[in-house]
Specification:
The protein is of the alpha+beta class. It folds into two domains: 41-100, no CATH class; 116-450, no CATH class. The chain has helices at residues 2-7, 36-65, 72-82, 86-100, 116-120, 378-387, and strands spanning 194-200, 203-211, 222-227, 232-237, 261-266, 278-280, 283-286, 293-298, 303-307, 318-323, 327-330, 333-334, 355-362, 368-376, 392-395, 405-410, 416-420, 440-445, 449-450. The strands form three sheets. It has a nine-stranded antiparallel beta sheet. Strand 13 and strand 14 (368-376) form a beta hairpin. Helix 2 crosses helix 3 (72-82) and helix 3 (72-82) runs antiparallel to helix 4 (86-100). It starts with a helix and ends with a strand.
């Protein structure tokens, strides 16, 4: 019995059952280990991103502070181009024109082809009386006006102004024949040249015509300004940023010339995108390139458009040479061979994109035309130039805001009243009178004026 107790005999019903299988070993939990190199990489990446954000904010602030009422998208695009991101801007603008800013197909223009109401706006009966305003380009050095707010416009040395002409001018040119519309049933006054702006020697020095650029996007006009170069002298004003080099006027038309300004419009591409050179006031800012489209302004105020090295050569009487791409019209023929050539006439668009485009052209008689309008393809721009009689034409700046053309009438006291060539132009009708970052072409009366 004692043995039974010692051995722990118990009834079978309460004996524990032996395990049928051996228990699985417990899983071990492993802590995730980070390689020291990964932590260093993340630290460096964070530092680079923070530095890039600081740099972007700092540089963008400078671009924003230098804006002239430009829309946000224009400021951003300018900042990107200033920081070597031009190809990306070009692609984004191509997407914008392809998918966002799509023109209507068909329809009729909401803008009138009749210019008379726009031309006479703001004039009172007294303004049509004989004016006592300055009647010719002032002789002698301009008065020194300190730089500062818009009311204080810096003036430049007389060597960069057209020579004064004090004798009355009676000879004049006639506007070209009407521009034939590509639309079978033109609107009233479409394609007809209508006198605008202040008169010079009692004669219209400028005319405007509006015409459709193609027979597909028929809701839009191309607006064309014609300037009589026997009644007007040209002046090139460098911007205080573009195209670089001498800057005697801080991008503004000297205020003493405001009473005789007839028209002004935008210059060409940024110099880095022009594929050409630039000369101004005796300084070769960037070497001129043979074969490129060139607009030359001479010291006497005359102006020529042509191919450098063929039609135009350097001489002592040249004040400025602005080059931009190739001639889009040469010898009266469009040089846009197909829609796929659009990229040649502005790297910010591709194929059939319709954008704000501008160009300067010259007719056989020496008169000048300017086009600055929305929803133009390179082909439509060239065809309109040819239709207006241009023998040679050079592309100017493009896209919203940078395309900007204006003409002027004057009150009796000589105050210029600005008119937009196309009413849908972005704000800044008098932008080329005040200090401005981009270059402009100005046209001044060379004889007594009347409103």
């Amino acid at each position: 019995m004692s043995e039974d107790v010692a051995t722990g005999d118990q009834p079978a019903s309460i004996d524990p059952e032996p395990a049928a299988v051996e228990a699985s070993p417990a899983r071990k939990r492993h802590a995730r280990r980070h390689h020291p190199g990964w932590r260093l990489f993340m630290l460096l990446a964070s530092f680079v991103l923070a530095a890039a954000a600081f740099w972007a904010g700092f540089t963008f602030q400078g671009t924003y502070a230098n804006a002239h009422g430009e829309p946000t998208e224009v400021i951003v695009a300018t900042w990107m181009r200033d920081n070597k991101m031009g190809p990306l801007v070009a692609k984004l603008e191509d997407i914008y024109y392809t998918y966002v800013s799509k023109p209507e197909v068909g329809g009729t223009p909401t803008l009138s082809a009749d210019i008379s109401a726009e031309d006479s706006a703001g004039l009172s009966p007294e303004d049509t009386e004989p004016s006592s305003a300055p009647s010719a380009i002032p002789s002698g050095p301009p008065s020194a006006i300190p730089s500062g707010p818009p009311s204080a416009i810096p003036s430049g040395p007389p060597s960069v102004m057209p020579s004064p002409i004090v004798t009355p001018v009676v000879e004049h040119l006639n506007p070209p024949p009407p521009i034939t519309s590509p639309v079978p049933n033109p609107e009233p006054q479409e394609g007809l040249w209508q006198p605008v702006g202040s008169r010079v020697a009692g004669l219209p020095a400028m005319y405007v015509a509006r015409v459709r650029a193609d027979n597909v996007h028929t809701s839009y006009y191309a607006s064309v300004l014609w300037i009589d170069t026997s009644l007007a002298k040209a002046m090139f004003i460098p911007g205080y940023e573009e195209p670089g080099g001498p800057n005697p006027f801080n991008g503004a038309l000297p205020k003493e010339l405001w009473p005789i300004v007839l028209a002004n419009f935008n210059g060409a591409f940024r110099l880095e995108d022009s594929m050409g050179g630039y000369y101004y006031g005796g300084e070769m800012v960037k070497p001129l390139v043979d074969g490129k489209a060139s607009t030359v302004v001479y010291k006497d105020g005359s102006i020529k458009v042509g191919k450098w090295g063929r039609d135009l050569q350097m001489s002592d009487d040249i004040q400025a040479v602005r080059q931009n791409l190739n001639l889009i019209v040469d010898k009266g023929v469009s040089k846009v061979s197909s829609e796929t050539d659009n990229v040649i006439w502005g790297a910010t668009t591709d194929k059939g994109s319709l954008a704000w485009r501008a160009a300067i052209g010259q007719l056989a008689d020496g008169s000048i035309i300017y086009i600055g309008s929305p929803f133009l393809s390179a082909d439509g721009l060239a065809n309109t130039l040819v239709g207006a009689g241009a023998q040679e034409a050079m592309v100017l700046d493009m896209n919203t805001w940078w395309t900007a053309g204006f003409y002027f009438r004057h009150k009796k006291n000589g105050t210029p009243l600005c008119r937009k060539l196309d009413p849908s132009l972005a704000e800044g009708c008098d932008r080329f009178l005040y200090p401005y970052k981009r270059d402009s072409f100005q046209f001044l009366a060379n004889a007594p004026m009347s409103p």
